[in-house]
Amino acid sequence: MPKEYRTIEEVAGPLMLVRGVSGVAYDELGEIELADGEKRRCKVLEIDGGNALVQLFESSTGLNLESSKVRFLGRSMELGVSEDMLSRVFDGMGRPIDGGPEILPDERRDINGLAMNPAAREYPAEFIQTGVSAIDGLNTLVRGQKLPIFSGSGLPHAQLAAQIARQAKVIGTDEPFAVVFAAMGITFDESNYFIQSFKETGAIDRAVLFINLANDPAVERISTPRMALTAAEYLAFEKGMHVLVIMTDITNYADALREISAARKEVPGRRGYPGYMYTDLASLYERAGRQKGKPGSITLIPILSMPEDDKTHPIPDLTGYITEGQIILSRELYRKGLEPPIDVLPSLSRLKDKGIGKGKTREDHADTMNQLFAAYSRGKDAKELAVILGDAALTDIEKLYAKFADAFENEYVNQGYRTNRSIEETLSIGWKLLSILPRTELKRIKDQYLDEYYVQQ
């Protein structure tokens, strides 16, 4: 039977100080009972001798210090996991919000899981098809990879996230594939968009959704990604599934971390974020990957909106250090009406070479990818030159490259949020675009592939 304490000293915003406690641990859950019998939840943030500083999950309004009592439950936050979680929608605390019954768990797991041991990691090497050409063809996602999407305020990262969640699959295998989707600090309209998008296409049947709304407590936002990763670990390493985890928006998560840190009066780091934000983000991202001897895997796509489109902001900056590349959305391409507005040149997947080629995608993939990058880069340079000096200053070959750049953006990158392209379709579009250029310009592709796929327009 847990001890009850009536020694609440003070309440300041979401924080409460309880004196004279014993046997209470960091991160332990607690329950506050008000005089009228109402119960509210809290979590231990700090222990100093017999004093416990706790964070309230709900509002502190109406909390009477003298008549309220606190019980500490002897455990940290847990999630009941089961295969029945598939096709269900939960809030940030793991409670069903889709009108369905409570989950009967196979087991209960502490949501503060550990980062994967590097010695137990299997190297990511298998291609995941997202159906998005700018990702599959040029910045390939590999099973077990951590590949973030860097967006900006107002850019359509929600539509891209929903598209990847609906379309992603491991090709050439019958192994079960699941999507765990965690949304943090989003509006009700965005939440409704995600849920309806999953239901319309039937993708909900293989998905688990955790939704934390903008008006939910900040401390719940901290637990939401950990709930999602706990569910993913169970499905991947206990049930042998390939799990794709999509988290949006990491910026809202980091802001909640800053809010809690400020309430605790901790010394702030860069831009007011806590100095331990790198460690905190790493504790999330490093739970993804593949384990030796286990068939399942966790592939992670965190999505973050860069404040003021600044790549050097602490959130994208630290995320870039931990993860294996980034997909960058461009405001310039968004203004041109491209869907999705993925800027392929600064985007990068550090593991793409391991997931493409013969037996994975197609033998010509690496060569065409390199040639498309080179041709698009030269085409953009030619277009910039034309803006300064006029079209008349361009040579005939530079005009061809400028034409290629426009066609590349309009046909390859711009595909809409409802088009699901196979890797063969993506490669075919790439070859069609390369045929705008004379064969003598395609110096990055082996002759054997040119003989087989190249057709001069």
From TrEMBL:
List, alphabetically, the InterPro entries matched: ATP-synt_VA_C (IPR055190), ATPase_a/bsu_AS (IPR020003), ATPase_F1/V1/A1_a/bsu_N (IPR004100), ATPase_F1/V1/A1_a/bsu_nucl-bd (IPR000194), P-loop_NTPase (IPR027417), V-ATPase_su_B/beta (IPR022879)
GO molecular function term, any single one? proton-transporting ATP synthase activity, rotational mechanism
Q: Locate the ATPase F1/V1/A1 complex alpha/beta subunit N-terminal domain: which residues? A: 9-74
**Which key words are in the record?**
ATP synthesis, Hydrogen ion transport, Ion transport, Transport
Q: Which Pfam families match?
A: ATP-synt_ab, ATP-synt_ab_N, ATP-synt_VA_C
Name its GO BP terms in alphabetical order: proton motive force-driven plasma membrane ATP synthesis
Which stretches make up the ATPase F1/V1/A1 complex alpha/beta subunit nucleotide-binding domain? 131-349
Q: Which SUPFAM superfamilies did the record assign?
A: P-loop containing nucleoside triphosphate hydrolases (SSF52540)
Going by the entry's taxonomy, the superkingdom of the source organism is recorded as Bacteria
Domain spans labelled ATP synthase A/B type C-terminal: 354-454
- Biological function: Produces ATP from ADP in the presence of a proton gradient across the membrane. The V-type beta chain is a regulatory subunit.
Alphabetized NCBIfam families for the sequence? PRK04196.1
**Which family is this protein grouped under?**
Belongs to the ATPase alpha/beta chains family.
Which HAMAP family does this chain map to? ATP_synth_B_arch (MF_00310)
Q: What is this protein called?
A: V-type ATP synthase beta chain
Native species of this protein?
Answer: Moryella indoligenes
